[in-house]
Amino acid sequence: MPRLPHLMGYSRAQIRLHWLVAVLITLQYLLHEPIVAAWRAFRKGETLAFQPLVALHVAGGLAILALVLWRLWLRYRRGAPPPPEAEPAPLRLAARAAHVTLYALMVAMPLSGAAAWFGGIGAAAALHGWLRIVLLVLIGLHVLAVLAHQLVFRTSLMQRMWRAEI
Ligand code: HEM
Ligand code: HEM
User: Fold this and answer.
1) Quick check: 95 and 83 in contact, CB under 8 A?
2) How confident is residue 166, by pLDDT bands cut at 50, 70 and 90?
3) pLDDT at residue 5 greater than cutoff 70
4) Which one in 74, 83, 107, 160 has a CA-CA gap of 20 to 30 Å to 20?
5) 6 occurs within a structural domain
6) Measured in angstroms, how far is the CA atom of residue 75 from the centroid of ligand 2?
7) Considering just the CA atoms, what is the radius of gyration of the chain in Å?
8) How many CB atoms lie within 10 A of CB 28?
9) Measured between alpha carbons, how far is 81 from 157 in angstroms, rounded to an integer?
10) Domain-located, residue 1
11) Contact 17/91 with Cβ under 8 angstroms?
12) Cα(42) to centroid of ligand 2, in Å?
């Protein structure tokens, strides 16, 4: 991906998108019960009444997909700041792998959910269920890594995702 040499940090749009997507993903996890019940009913051949929280899961998930594609386009066009100087080399590699996997999961989750919901594909629902665990574990590691940066490496990494730089 292209990287401008003078890039000091993330742009305002990149930061807003990061936090908006984080909030939407949290809601997907907190409010998943109704869609699970609706999916179970669908598999049993029962007729489904309209439920706002089911529609919210579908709409929220599709919104995440659109916002993540926008984010990836911004990252491709504008780039991202280089890793902090104090970050040990193996951790740079781990961070890069984690970020790539997070992006891949943020695309794969809505796609597998949509294949299940709109296509009635059972295997896609099973994949959706597995990927949700992988995504949750990675988000946990991501937060731990940010904490390690703050407390162990003292790189003030958090500021990069808080204050926009040109
Ligand atoms: C659903 C939850 C989250 C997801 C999916 C997520 C995903 C990501 C991704 C993919 C990046 C890489 C950005 C890029 O370089 O293009 C990133 C960066 C970052 N995230 Fe998150 N994030 C989440 C939650 C959080 C939380 C809760 C925190 C704070 C504790 C956080 C703090 C950061 C920071 C500080 C960066 C900048 C890292 C850097 O400058 O290299 N994120 N996040
Ligand atoms: C990043 C976006 C998404 C996240 C984080 C997410 C998260 C979740 C979670 C945590 C569950 C509960 C799974 C369980 O307890 O077994 C779930 C179930 C489900 N989601 Fe999503 N979802 C997303 C997008 C979507 C989209 C866009 C759709 C449909 C268009 C969708 C359709 C479904 C269906 C049908 C189920 C029930 C599957 C089952 O019970 O096996 N999801 N989702």
Assistant:
1) yes
2) low
3) no
4) 83
5) no
6) 26
7) 18
8) 19
9) 11
10) no
11) no
12) 14
Domain hosting 112: range is 12-161
Spatial contact of 157 and 107, defined as CB atoms under 8 Å apart: no
Pick the atom of ligand 2 nearest to 106's CA. Answer: 1
Instruction: Name the domain count of the chain.
Output: 1
3 in any annotated domain: no
Output the average pLDDT for the chain: 93
Residue 147 domain-assigned (yes or no): yes
Separation of 15 CA from ligand 2 center, angstroms? Answer: 25
Half-sphere exposure of 166 (CA within 13 A, CB side): 0
pLDDT of 2 higher than 60: no
CB 13 within 8 A of CB 74: yes
3 has pLDDT over 70: no
Q: Is the pLDDT of residue 165 over 80?
A: no
